[in-house]
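Example record

One chain of 423 residues, shown exactly as stored in the release files.
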Amino acid sequence: MKPKLIPCLALVLSGILIGGSTSVMSADLKVSSDFPGGSAKVLKLDRASNLIHITPACDPKLGYPCWWYFRLDNVDTGNPVVLVVTANQGVVQSGDKPRKLPADYSLPEYAAYSTDGTNWEHTARGERQGSQSIYRINTASSTLWLAWGPPFTLKDADQLIQKTCDLCPYAKSFVLANTRGGRPVPGVRISQPGATDGPRFSVWIQARQHAWESGSSWVARGFAEWLVSNDPAAESLRAKADIVIIPIMDVDSVETGQGGKEQLPHDPDGDWGSDPYFPEVAAGMEKLSALAKADRLDLFLDLHNPGYSARDIDFYLPAVPLLFPARVANDDNFLKIVQEQMTGAIKFNGRIGPDGKTYDPVVDKSVDTWTAAQCQSHTISFTMEIPWNISAATQDGYLKVGAQLGRSIDLYLQPAIRSGSKK
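Predicted structure tokens for this chain:
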């Protein structure tokens, strides 16, 4: 019987392991992804060359299988870490047609790494070789966290909201809903009573309907941190508007390390209809409907990351039949301000994505269109796409965009700029 065991033992000692284990070692080199947001299927470990070869462990049925995130322990600090990522090109449901996910989604030009699991920076540009990319990292730390982009999990959302409430006496945390997996979807509401005479403006910003788009949560964090700062524009916005921020919508997919976008039975962003599947979407619809009926919603933003080729910020408008004159005027005013404010490394160049030419609520179930359909004609409702596949798409880069977004909203919510009157 012993001869049957020898090939298996040789396989382990050679530093090669094929499979989807969440904790794999080659000698004392160890890969782990058994934590919130973790995703990595180990294809090869080679201690001699400090090489780690992985592919995203996502299930294509649960969205784009492009997200990867793991911890590497017992690193040889005397040699560069060589990370090889093979794209997961599993078949996803794109509209009515299945398709193989392009390799580009799994292979960012710059990967993210951290020595403490909190502060993230970019690797050097990856070396692309077909459906693989090679990333090289020099480090003095024996432990590294490596990821597709800077992770942002439920723990990060909770910490952000707690920090916001600690810094601002008018900030109150709430749970939008519990997910199908039983997890809370946390949010924060900032409302400064008596700060202004007459009706107040109302703003709703949510992020991460697609779990792999982690940069959108960092932009939401940047907005929240700016909003409770002593920046005069932040003080001005707090004085005249009630603001809701939800850093993560699809908490289940984020926590389980799935892609989320175009998941089955359908995409969360296509769930905004008469029979929502996701409890967090149903709860969002209920609260937004109440604001709309009271004419208490002025600006809605759904934050995303776009496709791999995008280099600048894009905005998507609701369907053409919902672009009433007052809304068009407000859209133009807001986008003009954004273009003036967002001129840094991550900028808005004025490009507006395609919108639907017709509107059928039975078919068109994206959140920006649904929200526009519920609200008064002066309300603006956008999807905002922030690029991820550029050198500036770092923690700091995203946080700056969040602050610039806040200043843009403050400038927009001026009586001389905003078209339409509050009732």
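Notes: The two ends are 84 Å apart (CA to CA).
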